Amino acid sequence: MALLDTWTRGEHTDPAGTSHPTYRKGDGPGVVLVHEIPGISPDVVAYAEELVAAGYTVMMPHLFGTPAAPVGARSVGRALAQICVSREMSMLAAGETTPVAGWLRSLARELHGEIGGPGVGALGMCFTGGFALAMMVDDSVAAPVLAQPSTPFPLGRRRAADLQLSPADLDTVRSRAAAGCQVLGLRYEGDRMIGSRFETLSRELGDAFLRVDLPGSKHATLTLHRHQDAVDAVLAFFDDRLRR
């Protein structure tokens, strides 16, 4: 059986007319799980299945890469090539919100409108880690999780500290955090891809930023270099924020 055979394939089109495929499975509160590079890999699917087993409706957008393709030099290269020519995503721009955030917010609103409850979870990883923060601009997102957020790639101090948000979006995120919307961040302490943005998050969001700093210099906290403390923290966060 193929990895995604038990998932329902769909497509979401936002008000601007942008469309991307989606994969959905499960029951319960909604979680938008945004895949890392190189795409919806077997490791990402395995983690998504854990969320489904824990009682969540998981929606996985397919933004780049080949669904179910294993992680390797070829799949990573293809994904990076797609990202480099995409107008929706950027690896280097600082002080700007990635354009695909608008589509992701629309997806979150639709899922929340269908399922109801206090809101949906948003979880981004690595290249898409900061996307969850950008999704928090929309009130439908009640539980944003940033797993090893790595963009803009930390080339220089400014990019290393940047949250990939426009000034207006950062103001909204600050306001929502001050009003009680917490943000969960996961990283390995020695992961240089994160730059200094966890310090930025702590400064900008204060106590609303809940950080999990794992020992070591690995990277993928929930998938390839899975750490149980990170997995447990996400489930506890979603249970607290989405099951009220």
UniProtKB/TrEMBL annotation:
<dbReference type="Pfam" id="PF01738">
    <property type="entry name" value="DLH"/>
</dbReference>
<protein>
    <submittedName>
        <fullName>Dienelactone hydrolase family protein</fullName>
    </submittedName>
</protein>
<keyword id="KW-0378">Hydrolase</keyword>
<feature type="domain" description="Dienelactone hydrolase">
    <location>
        <begin position="27"/>
        <end position="150"/>
    </location>
</feature>
<feature type="region of interest" description="Disordered">
    <location>
        <begin position="1"/>
        <end position="27"/>
    </location>
</feature>
<dbReference type="GO" id="GO:0016787">
    <property type="term" value="F:hydrolase activity"/>
</dbReference>
<dbReference type="InterPro" id="IPR002925">
    <property type="entry name" value="Dienelactn_hydro"/>
</dbReference>
<dbReference type="InterPro" id="IPR029058">
    <property type="entry name" value="AB_hydrolase_fold"/>
</dbReference>
